[in-house]
Amino acid sequence: MMSTETETADAGVVGEITRTCLLTRTRRIARIITNMYDQALRPYAVNAPQFSSCPGRATPR
Length: 61
Fold this sequence. Notes:
Elements (H helix, E strand, L loop, with lengths): L3 H17 L1 H20 L6 H5 L9
């Protein structure tokens, strides 16, 4: 069984990584943006990955 002191130290390390790791922050931002698209596309019964692979979407020329 872990001591409270060890658990607090582990939580501190995890918090530091979460705040400073560029990869972790980038993945979190990507999830937030995907969630925004999912919410906007919900009325059309489509999610972000489905939308990005739609063959009929308009493409700039």
